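Quick one, T. Sequence first:
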Amino acid sequence: MPAADARKAPAPTRQRILDEAERLIAVKGVYGFTLRDIAAPLGVQVPAIYKHYKSRDDVLIEVSRRFIHLLAGQFELRPELSPVAAFRAALDAFVELMMSRPAYVRLALVDFATPGGGMEYVKLAAGGSFKANLLRGPLAAMHSRLRRLLRAAVRAGEFRPTDATDVYRLLKASLLIRLVFPDDTLLLRKPSSAEIRAGKKWLWNIASRHLVLR
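Structure tokens:
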């Protein structure tokens, strides 16, 4: 057995660079930091970052790949749950992702503001635009699972038939705006458990008004 005082191995430098980049994006914005800002808290010089990433853009592409990887796992199918409970569990996980990784909220907002349906960092990470990822690319399976969750609830007589893309628009737009308007304090600190619960309830209330048969 390991010694009782054995310490957890430090994260690899490559990972620590991305972690610090995420922190800086959350507090300074996508374009508000430099490689020097990343290097200083890590106790390294900027040339040390170049051993792992070619440029600041390269760092942003890798942060975007993290975002795409986690987003691609959303809307998990839960066959052990009722259709509505499975959908609500998926909404809860979506809220947890966006509230626990505020850099991704900033990336998504900049991405939406970019002509062509995706800024270069996220587009490179996703292998294409928003529209392309509806049917192919790393986010296609996520969109497919959302369609299946909705269809299951419709078949069960719980939800009205609704286009899955419209539902995704509603969910993502509502949550992003909640996190930044009228202020973005939830992105500047770790949210409390109560705040996360409130976010989950708020998004479910919006979704249920749109989807649940009355």
